[in-house]
Design goal:
Helix content: over 70%
Distance between the termini: 124 Å
Radius of gyration: 35 Å
Strand content: under 5%
Number of helices: 5
Shape: rod-shaped
Largest sheet: none
Length: about 130
Amino acid sequence: MFLDYFALGLLVFVALVIFYGIIVIHDIPYEIAKEREHPHQDAIHYAGWVSLFTLHAIWPFLWIWATLWRKERGWGFKKLEAEQHDMHHRVDALIDKVEALQQEVEQLKQAQSAPTMSAEKNNEEEQ
């Protein structure tokens, strides 16, 4: 008799833990959106509740939707594109500077070797 009530209590406890666990899991995208101050956090929250009725079929999309936004850069695609464009121009400028420095080094090497060559020729002529 006691074991029957214990088993029933355990069954109810496990059912409640699973029920609340599912609710906590479905709320993860909303918590991410709230932490990132997402402009659509309410929509993500409501869609999370809808996902309960779709057996969490849309839940991965909510996770993606919540994680795409960042407060400091927004959706980030245009700003990231502009940053990459600026970086590309900086790299091009650095490549031009390196090429100019390589040419200067070559000129200095030639200028340094020219006097020594003429000095060697003069030594050969004197002998």
